[in-house]
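Example for tutorial group B:
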């Protein structure tokens, strides 16, 4: 589970922004009624979902993009060579292009809390550290700072939990995260961290392979049919079978994190749907169903895997091509989970409702006058009462994170008549 993420100097993010999944101490009647929106860890309530609102070009997607980049770097950087240029841009103004970008995440894996951080430029890793709390007290795993000297013994300090840590350091260039190299070299705690970022923190829909698609489809058939009925009430059954030919192997592009359903599935699985009009007549799922129905099928596979296994999902513009009722259905899956988490952006103001989300689950993203992105929570507005109309207040610009558009009829006529 994620407890906290901090970012600075990535894309439009200049100064540090923080997404805090540790629930605030809210005692309102609405918050008390939303008991399923949080789960308990130790003595802390943790949020299951967090939603970011903001105008176009405010930087919402840049927050998601920065997290995706940083997480991907953990399980890819051991493949980097001397010519590698990291695929991100620092903030371009005020001299920040020459300053390091920083990432910090506090999270739990197998019941143990970790704090992992690194800083980098476009061309090299500057610093990196990992601490954990094996018995409730902080303990160093390693600390790295490339500015401390040229010798590895100057750059690194270690606790006592990694075997032969200097062997790893000697094989870690300034293009590579130590945690990535140490995992590759079979060190236990780094492998745990690597697997967390690779298998538990899911960066997009369709975050699994072909065998998982087939297994999850069969295990969750009834739930899938129920979900599809929201999009198309005529579907009454779905059948999935493997094709004998091995087909091609397709991998998501980890820089753009995009892949089409058809590319991944069409040569490996045969998915057939059946409709109420004639339950015996099958339809080829990928060619005869709507794109919205196809997308929903694979989204729900991802959601079910994440909810069952208490993973984390990161989604930009969750409402894209999906009906608001389907989005609400997805949120309810997380509410029903033990400790699964969702971080997403959206423009759908339907969910700006304090009977559905707590104040600390709602974040706003705003572009400041210096062109940088700031991120803040509704919880920061202590004067905003639960009885107020949150959606109306947001659309009126109470929280700044809406576009300011001069769209009077006279002004528009003036544009076209010039």
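The residue assignment follows.
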């Amino acid at each position: 589970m994620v407890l906290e993420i901090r970012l600075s100097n990535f894309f439009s993010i200049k100064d540090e922004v923080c997404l805090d999944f540790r629930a605030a101490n809210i005692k309102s009647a609405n918050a008390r009624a939303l008991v399923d929106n949080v789960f308990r860890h130790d003595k802390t309530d943790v949020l299951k979902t967090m939603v970011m609102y903001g105008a176009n070009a405010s930087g919402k997607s840049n927050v998601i993009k920065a997290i995706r980049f940083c997480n991907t770097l953990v399980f890819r950087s051991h493949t980097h060579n001397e010519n590698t240029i990291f695929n991100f841009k620092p903030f371009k103004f005020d001299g920040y292009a020459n300053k390091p970008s920083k990432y910090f995440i506090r999270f739990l894996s197998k019941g143990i809390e970790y704090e992992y951080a690194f800083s980098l430029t476009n061309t090299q890793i500057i610093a990196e550290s990992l601490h954990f709390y094996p018995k409730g007290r902080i303990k160093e795993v390693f600390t790295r700072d490339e500015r401390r000297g040229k010798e590895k013994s100057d750059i690194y300090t270690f606790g006592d939990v990694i075997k032969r840590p200097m062997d790893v350091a000697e094989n870690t260039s300034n293009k590579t995260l130590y945690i990535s190299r140490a995992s590759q070299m079979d060190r236990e705690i780094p492998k745990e961290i690597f697997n967390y970022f690779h298998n538990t923190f899911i960066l997009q829909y369709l975050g699994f392979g072909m065998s998982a698609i087939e297994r999850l489809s069969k295990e969750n058939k009834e739930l899938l049919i129920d979900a599809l009925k929201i999009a198309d009430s005529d579907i009454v059954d779905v059948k999935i079978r493997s094709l004998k030919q091995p087909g091609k192997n397709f991998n998501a592009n980890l820089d753009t994190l995009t892949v089409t359903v058809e590319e991944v599935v069409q040569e490996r699985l045969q998915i057939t749907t059946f409709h109420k009009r004639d339950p015996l007549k099958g339809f080829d799922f990928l060619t005869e169903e709507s794109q919205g129905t196809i997308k929903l099928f694979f989204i729900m596979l991802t959601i079910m895997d994440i909810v069952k296994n208490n993973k984390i999902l990161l989604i930009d513009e969750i409402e894209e091509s999906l009906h608001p009722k389907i989005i609400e259905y997805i949120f309810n899956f997380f509410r029903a989970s033990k400790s699964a988490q969702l971080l997403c952006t959206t423009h759908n103001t339907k969910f700006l409702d304090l009977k559905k989300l707590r104040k600390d689950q709602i974040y706003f993203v705003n572009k400041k006058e210096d062109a940088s992105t700031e991120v803040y929570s509704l919880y920061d507005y202590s004067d905003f009462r639960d009885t107020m109309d949150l959606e109306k207040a947001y659309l009126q610009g109470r929280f700044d994170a809406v576009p300011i558009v001069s769209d009077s009829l006279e002004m528009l006529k003036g544009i076209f008549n010039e």
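The first strand starts at residue 2 and ends at 8. Compare this with the pattern of hydrophobic and polar residues in the output above.
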